[in-house]
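SAMPLE LOG
Freezer: B-3
Tube label: C17
Construct: single chain, 177 aa
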Amino acid sequence: MKNKKQIQAIYDFIISSEKSLKSAKKLLADLIKDNNVDLEKEVELNTNWLHSYESEDSKIVEWVFTGEEMYWVDGEKYPIPANYASKSKMVQWDKLKLTIAPNWKMTYKQIWPIERETTTWLLTKDKWKFQAISNDKTYDLLTAAVTHFDAKIWDNLALIIPKWKQATFAAIDSIIK
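STRUCTURE (predicted):
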């Protein structure tokens, strides 16, 4: 029966993969312990402090910025105008509010910027997305920010990043000539 050999091969592959995964988890746990990192705190988008309420005729919703979108308490991500995020130099983890007027006009406002730091990076492009690199770290960038600053590949950038939280996105502060 030829299927028996295929079944055995798949089974062996699964067992091998499970062993590799177990080893990788052990290595990661050791690194986390050695570096005193609370991985859940680092990557979790905590939404407990976000609110939604009415003010006069408008509805106000608070969000956390993911680097590309707004994240809300329902666990969903919603679009934000990239030009607003770029020009406002929004940084991943910033808190903002969206005011929705009765005529559906939407107004965005940054209400709690995360503590930040500015560092120097090099602009690159990986297939379709712009990135900033320095040593062994990479940050994704909004295309709207790159075009807003008229940045070119290999330009040196002053980037704004969260000071105390891990991030995958950064905001461009300026181009360093």
